[in-house]
Amino acid sequence: MDPFLSIIAMQSSWNESAQFRRRLLWALLLLLVAILVLVGRLVDLQLLQNQRFRLLAHANHTAIVPLAPRRGLILAAHGQVLATNRADYVLELIPDQVTHIHHLLQRLRQDFPISRTREQHLLHTLDTKPAYVPRILLKNLDPGEMARFSVRQMEYPGVRLAIHWQRYYPYGKLFAHTVGYVGPVTARDLRGFDPKEYLDRQEIGVNGLELAEERQLRGRFGYDILEVDALGNPVRTLRQQRPIAGDTILTTLRLRVQQAVARLMEKEHYRGALIAINPQTGAILASVSNPSFNPNWFVGGISSKHWQQLLADPSHPLVNRVLQGLYPPGSTIKPFYAMEALQKGILSPHFQTYCPGFLRVGGHVYWDWYRSGFGETNLTKALAWSVDVFFYKLAMKMGIGLQDQTLWRFGFGQPTPIDLPGSFSGLVPTPQWKEHHLHAPWYTGDSIILGIGQGYLLVTPAQLVRAVAAIANGGTLPYLHLLHAIRTPNGTTLSAGVAPLTRHLRLPAFALHAVRQGMRACVTQGTCRAVSYPGISVAGKTGTAEVPVGYAHGHTLYNDDSLFIGWAPYHHPRIAVAAVVEDGGGNAWQALPVAKAAILSYLRPKLRFHTFTNIVVNPAQAFG
Prior knowledge:
- By secondary structure, the chain is of the alpha+beta class.
- The model is unreliable at 613-624 (pLDDT under 50).
């Protein structure tokens, strides 16, 4: 063999051997990397993520079906049920038991009033929940529909008749603004609540006590733990935890008082409000805002017809006038100015002044309501007969600084401390407020008319009753509350505890005596005589407030609101009231029978209704 060819053959063989060794080395490296990756993955699955996959494996063969609890009851003081739950018969469809869902829905529509909207919603949301979870097809089945389904049930595989518990308010609109109502759960309603608590709930408190006590009323979910197969079909129930019903709320409301006031206001077509409380504790006995609305309309979602009806009503029935009605207080504000002036030494209990029927300041004349004048007037007479000139002069002595201080001290200009949502602040005007909003300075005339509760001052009935309670009870502004106690499902009753936010005004005894004496005289001989009743000592104060409603022919047009504040019995107060009747006309007499209905229904519960609702009031006896 040629030596040259031998050398070439040997070199070729050596190159092939080196290439093979390189390939083998790379193969070994790749194999090592693969082994390392595999080992790492096994370590990750078996050690690092063992707990996670154990839970996933468990969840893969089990499913949790939530069981909704019944909502807690709301009761009046003597046990009457104000909010309860009643059975609502519904048709439910279970998707995993239906073969041809479109054909089934088509047959159902022929026999039951299932809307196209409900059908489309059901079809679009089939994948949002497991197929074994029932979907509601039709609510509020009547007896005829239930009987028809029971007879033909075999024709509708996968459809069943079920009972859902729906909120119900037995007294309708009577307690709508205090008890409130529930509605479908929305993102807006969940503000302040844990969204996880409402994943499968159908309703939530929207207003009143239903909202304020939502956490106590809603109860706790139960659940069924089901074993399911690979397709998600239930095989058997592994465990069941029954739901826990919500707590029962015991309130301070007195049904008879609420009914007496509401019937009178509806009968006379009065638009306004009344709130009655225990002046010692702040417990709310009645809270009436008229006109009202039917809270049952909102359960399950209000219809468009009812919603438009409420929105179109010019009397605004959705407004809780007790907490949100803003009114000039008129002469009902006078006792509070008198109390502060006495305490500051600006006014003496024996001070007298002459009332000619007007007060001239600069070039302006401020008339008294009784233009003939009252002559010599002391504090008792000024409160009994609501003498404007007396309080014009007092306002000038006090000045706007002390006037505002008085109003703030008695709780005006700030939300009323109460266990209900939505309390308005009202308005206590100041020179700074007028400059900022009206771009005008504060004049002496502004202070003068503020002294009789007119001008820019706005208050709520809740603020008025709280302030008059402080005069009745000796100087304590109470915390207003509806909640008396909470009863758990196991029967344990929990007290609501000591009421917070109580303010002690430290009113001197001589000032309290002087103002109380004037307010008692208002009932025995003055403008409040129509509220008196034999055997019951009442103290009070009327008010007439001019409310601008328009402008015509160069003049502002006014309506007169009628107001009353007071308490009874005089020496041992058990009830304090504040009443407002909008557009009641002059002389403040319309608020008197409303207040009287509340006082007598509470202190004389055995009186027949007509004894204190068919009140004939002589307007000549009720100026103010």
